[in-house]
Amino acid sequence: MKSKIIIGTRGSKLAITQTNMVIDELRSKYPSLEIEVKIIKTTGDKILDKSLSKIGGKGLFIAEIEDNLKNNNIDLAVHSMKDVQNVVLKEFEILSVLKREDPRDALISKNELTIEKLPKGAVIGTSSLRRMVQIGKLRPDLEFKLLRGNIDTRIKKMLNGEADAIILAAAGLKRMGWEKNISQYIDIHKCIPSVGQGALCVEFRRGDMDVKSIVNTLVDEIEFKCILSERAFLREMNGGCSIAIGAHATVSNDKIELEGFVCDDNNTTIFKSETTGSINDYENIGIELARKLKGLLEGGK
After folding, report:
1. Taking the model in full, what pTM does it have?
2. Span 164-179, pLDDT tens digits
3. Domain coverage including residue 177
């Protein structure tokens, strides 16, 4: 086994916090393993005045990190699973690690108002098309404003008057210990999350069995199968940041229950569906849900 590994990560407070969570677990299992952290600035961190759909999608948060993996500058990388493209490059492999955090979206607002109690015409800051269309269905009178940046940056922008409220992933707020800022946890069936939301991902070079064996000890197999089911859905739908899409899987009695949605080309009509099957048939469950929604999309045209 390797005596030292180098971990790559983005430089945001959340990214470093999540990387340290992984490091703590690795150190508890491998006390003699030397671990070094390399902070890598990504295109997604540099361009903050445009939505992800307009600058190339979620892969912009990991492209430079993958370059460092390819060039052997790092041994593995820690990502938020929702930032990973629906098809991973053949040179790499991903594993879901640690316990998945709360997958819901959360509202932070002035005066701790909920979505239902926000005044008419209130402005919500978000860069997520997925959030805009689902919250827009709940409150068609609300306005949305592009707001990107790290969690603390977005909170400051809201407090400075750029928006009346913002929507963020509850997982990041909880990992940062900032739950006290949350005005409302949004019902997961009313605002279906991004694929993989709340989960952490480790990416490494395919074939590096030393790193894989180390990382494998951090994998929760049941949760990973849920995430792989969500990702199979996204892959079959060929979804990214340019369409409003989401899915969330849970396990009950050895069965995966997968719920998902997609919007039409105009992002005006939401199509929802769900499917259930054996936990070991996780990939086909995702594909089946995608085919159901494709059928609904075709029928709606």
Report:
1. 0.91
2. 999 999 999 999 999 9
3. 105-185
